[in-house]
Amino acid sequence: MKNKHLISITDFTRDEVFKILELAAEFEKNPSQNLLNGKVIATLFFEPSTRTRLSFESAISRLGGKYIGFTDASSSSVSKGESIKDTIMTVANYSDMIIMRHPVEGSARWASEVSRVPVINAGDGANQHPTQTLLDLYTIKQTQGTLENLNLFFVGDLKYGRTVHSLIQAMSMFNTTFHFISPLELQIPKEYKLYLDKLGLKYYEYRDFSEIANDADIIYMTRIQRERFSDPMEYEKTKNSYVLKNSMLNNTRPNMKVLHPLPRVNEIHTDVDTNEKAYYFTQALNGVYTRQAIMTYILGLK
Ligand code: CP
Questions:
Q1: What CATH topology corresponds to 130-284?
Q2: Where do the structural domains in the chain lie, given as residue ranges?
Q3: Residues contacting ligand 1 via CB (< 6 Å)
Q4: I need a surface site. Which of 115, 163, 187, 274 has the fewest CB within 10 A?
Q5: Side-by-side strand order, sheet with 257-259
Q6: Residue 287 Cα: closest atom of ligand 1
């Protein structure tokens, strides 16, 4: 649908998800097209980012568009006390689409309610990260040949990990069996378990991560999200909970791939990087094609 917002992955139907994946495959074959010629896209990052911002900006540049924005709220008039509403209403006058990352959950939805141009959520607090999810789906399909009936293991910070929350909702469309490995303090929030319960999907929870992932199709590692902890001691307690090492992959399935939304701290040892099952840097590359697909689809150019 032209000019819709993308705030939560549930804003897209299953058909729309497949459409995005199909377009992303086209962009992978031919990433340099002039589809955004004459368009201005705003990238408003109130929180740090490397991959999301730069892959969006790379995607825009390769499509002949221009981008404006900021990488730090302190360089905008928000630092003088301007509200999100006023910021969005102003930036909507300067651009054809707004891509926004913000630390407050629900901020992207709020922005979409006051914006006259489409808003894309580039991560709102611990809530959702739908464009990451679409690139994750693209990567899973690319490596597994299908999205159906897979065994998906999530490891790490499942409480604050917004990429996990969005991906659970997306993969619930494909009869996934979910395995959640986390410290007790960082377990998957109840609302996502209820979501899976309602759909009758199977999920299992574990605290230990040693050999249990041998029947995984995907191991989705995550960083412990230090910036979300109110008590630094809690972070210290959990920060080294799981470290994936190369030797732990010896008995995993041949088709298995290790994904990670990145950035990584120490939850994947660097000795995994050269293993053919490590796929996180290609996953990050897929962000460019998938974000090209998302923007051109939302603007009705594809
Ligand atoms: N995956 C992800 O959101 O990475 P950045 O924080 O670097 O954008």
A1: Rossmann fold (3.40.50)
A2: 9-129+287-298, 130-284
A3: 49-52, 123, 132, 261-263
A4: 274
A5: 203-206, 177-181, 151-155, 218-221, 257-259
A6: 1
pLDDT in tens, the chain (302 residues): 556 899 999 999 999 999 999 999 999 999 999 999 999 999 999 999 999 999 999 999 999 999 999 998 898 999 999 999 999 999 999 999 999 999 999 999 999 999 999 999 999 999 999 999 999 999 999 999 999 999 999 999 999 999 999 999 999 999 999 999 999 999 999 999 999 999 999 999 999 887 678 999 999 999 998 888 888 888 888 888 899 999 999 999 999 999 999 999 999 999 999 999 999 999 999 999 999 999 999 999 98
Name the DSSP class of 205: E
Place domain 9-129+287-298 in its CATH homologous superfamily.
Aspartate/ornithine carbamoyltransferase (3.40.50.1370)
Token couple for 76:
């905008």
Residue nearest atom 3 in ligand 1 by C-alpha distance? 52
Which residue, judged by its Cα, is nearest atom 5 of ligand 1? 49
CA dihedral 238, 129, 293, 282 (to 10 degrees): 0
**In CATH terms, are 9-129+287-298 and 130-284 the same topology?**
yes
User: In this structure, which residue's CA is closest to atom 7 in ligand 1?
Assistant: 50
The pTM score is 0.95
